[in-house]
Amino acid sequence: MSTDRPHSVSVAGVIVDDQGRALLIKRRDNGHWEPPGGVLEREETIPEALQREVLEETGIKIALPATLTGVYKNMKGLIVSLVFRCEAADGTPTTGEETRALRWATREEVTELADEAYAIRVLDALDAISPPAVRAHDGVKLV
To answer: Which CATH architecture has domain 11-89+98-137?
Structure first.
């Protein structure tokens, strides 16, 4: 077993509107369309991280509890991501330091805009499957 690099844990929130569309962000750092999210800080709980990351990247405060819809492992980046279906509680979608653009996307648009590894997270959340999906990817494609 290799111990040269530990895994990190991230959260992502798929906010779904009343038309069944998901809110995607276009990241400033890589230009990719993804659900809002990021890495947990040392002292925060998973729900706290989820609320913080979604608020930072979208300007929207989400209602808790949110529904866990999937667990995803980036086999190359060594990141385990917990993805939740969320409901907006307050706020208006706005760009920020980490977000170049935002858009409400249909299922079809999600698969056109996002890499497979991120599109499946959004689709799993839209489907709100139970039990949650457990998947692995290489950063772009499912493995």
So the answer is: Alpha-Beta Complex (3.90)
